[in-house]
Amino acid sequence: MADAHCNNNHVPVLFSFSAFSRPSSVPVGSGHELLIQKFLSIYGNQIDVHRKFVIQLFSEEWGQYIDLPKGFSVSEKCKLRLIPIQIEISTLGNISPSTTAFFCCDMQERFRPAIKYFGDIISVGQRLLQGARLLGIPVIVSEQYPKGLGATVQEMDLTGAKLVFPKTKFSMVLPEAEAALADLPGVRSIVLFGVETHVCIQQTALDLIGRGYEVHIVADATSSRSMIDRMFALERMARTGITVTTSEAVLLQLVADKDHPKFKEIQNIIKASAPESGLLSKV
Asked: Which positions are catalytic?
């Protein structure tokens, strides 16, 4: 007989975190992404989004919690817990070429007339791509429905990109991107830029932190059709623990030292100040 608390579409689940346990329910078929979101909705500020986590499932066979099996989806009543993985606090907010990947989101031709300061963010995005090539940082590029919206703008040189893939979902966190990241096990930080700030950028960022990555949004390389949408998206992401930064700050943090062998070349990229991309505009 079905559980009394379960309707036709939801399954009862006990969600445990730290010393707390709370019963709730999720839709049948919920996978890792939805379960992370559920933990965040239940425990909110108690979860430090800077840390990496693993979800564990209570196994009746083994009589203890085990790591969530790959491809798991909820089909029946179960008990889950969220376990933080210990990382060095001193690494939080720091980025280095060996532990960083760049995500370039939907910088496509059809968005040119609609997105505020699109020319500016193309210019800044190109700086980031140049820096990535110089420093050997992998770049993953998405294109939203390219059949209808066109390819990435010609000004953005994608030479050497690890992956360029089409999508229809707003978030970039799709099997293609996850497979590319699986080939980069040392990566823990994602530098994210593109359009639109309040849609694809925001949803990608939230999905990434849900998977344990640190996310750095390049404010002068991301925009929206509406500056209000852009502003509140940046504020919301900052409140969730995502780092909102600038292109120059990212590039100089990656070289870290004027004696870095690529410092002079990076310096040439940033010699002229990046456009403000409307960040200081009151319009």
From this structure: 106, 167, 200
> Is residue 237 classed exposed, middle or buried when 0-12, 13-18 and 19+ CB atoms within 10 A define those classes?
buried
Q: Which two tokens stand for residue 213?
A: 């990555």
Given a cut of 60, whether residue 86 has pLDDT beyond it is no
pLDDT at residue 47 tops 90: no
What phi and psi values does residue 27 have, to the nearest 5 degrees? -65, 145
Tell me if 13 sits within 8 A of 80, measured CB to CB. Answer: yes
Amino acid at 258: K
Contacts of 183 (CB under 8 A, 6+ apart): 162
Q: What is the pLDDT of residue 84?
A: 80
Per the prediction, the chain carries an average pLDDT of 90
Largest CA distance in the chain: 70
Say if residues 39 and 57 touch (Cβ distance below 8 Å): no
